[in-house]
Amino acid sequence: MAGNVMGCYEAMALASRAMLHAARDSDWDTVASLERHCAGLVAQMGRGPVAAPLDETQRRRRVEILQRLLAEDAEIRNLAQPWLADLQSMLGQARAPRAARASLVAR
User: Among 11, 16, 83, 102, which is most buried by a count of CB atoms within 10 Å?
Assistant: First the structure.
């Protein structure tokens, strides 16, 4: 059973890498499709019977995969939300005039 769990992790790793490439190409339809595929894999792992404990090699591989998934997810989010940095910049610029007005009103 541990092999099936590891197979799901490996499949998620492949899908995550493909999602990252699609995001870099701004192919958001493919990103969404692969995201649904990953959600299905996660659901499959949750529905199955309790897996046998992973051996040390499998645990190390699982940690590597999870770390890579997190890094790729962060990059995908950065690619998907470039407006977030713009928004933060605009909010920062908007705060400065408000702070100046507030100090004038306080006088």
Answer: 16
